[in-house]
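Researcher: I need the complex structure. Ligand is nicotinamide-adenine-dinucleotide. Inputs:
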Amino acid sequence: MSAENIKKISLIGSGIMGSQIAMVGALAGFDVVLQDIEEKNLKKAEKELRSRLERRVSKGKLAQDELEQTFSRLTLTSSLEEAVTNTDFVIEAIVEKVDIKRAVFKEIDALAPGNAILSTNSSTIVSSKLADATTRPEKVCNFHFFNPALVIEMVEVVKGPHTSEETANTAFHLAKKLGKTPILLKKEISGFVANRILGKLMNEAIYLYENGYATAEEIDLACTKALNHPIGPFALIDLTGLDIHYNVRMQRYEESGNPEDKPAETIIEKVNKGEFGRKTGKGFYVYS
Ligand SMILES: NC(=O)c1ccc[n+]([C@@H]2O[C@H](COP(=O)([O-])OP(=O)(O)OC[C@H]3O[C@@H](n4cnc5c(N)ncnc54)[C@H](O)[C@@H]3O)[C@@H](O)[C@H]2O)c1
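Model: Output:
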């Protein structure tokens, strides 16, 4: 399958990532199906996407009829079968748990056409941990967007040892057709490139915070005003979600056994209190 032949894209999971990636696809002219096991999450996704596009219309960045056409290319469903029948390219964006992802990959493999590519948007899990749950490991790869997917340009395409050259190249070119700037990693590594670098930055930021050298606000200011980063590490962690950060670090720790990969005490405390960041109104900052 070449990128030119891809007409239909299926997003599995309609959370923060899946919903916005689906809209990236619909805006780029693809037929997109967005699937979730929770009807209420599909409704929430649709409402949020509509209000985002309406904001674009009110700013004059999108015409009203383009909005309608974009939504006409987007189908929402709770049926996995409906989502992947006749699909060309699947992007899984469900919870960051390897066992759950494996079970879903197995189901998708049984339902999707034999030539469809199955990718994961996981932040950390390499696709070799999922590929052998399918009968088509050569068509499995990582396809990693960043939050917010409608805005951030980068997509990391990661080729595992099982992934064919054709699959990796198709995913790379699809990312371009989606208006993104992809990089293609020819060798897989947990966390890939950007998040590994970010992880080191986070560790240092949390070390300075936990040991009372500076507040979260001060550390964010140092990053934005001295290093010229667009957002500080604590504001970023609130945006992506402390729960996501926690799951990613636990996943990496389970893989590496390195205690440095474990989530920091501050993160564990906040997650236990339900302070997940922007999505719950409180993380390192308070949101109205
Ligand atoms: N949040 C981020 O900043 C970010 C960035 C890049 C990648 N990711 C990755 O994207 C994936 C999704 O993250 P998210 O932040 O969108 O999560 P989320 O919690 O916002 O959404 C996950 C969605 O998946 C649904 N789901 C769970 N099990 C399912 C199943 N079996 N079938 C269909 N839907 C199911 C849930 O109902 C939920 O709506 C994860 O693998 C994560 O590592 C997240």
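Model: Summary of the prediction. The first strand starts at residue 8 and ends at 12.
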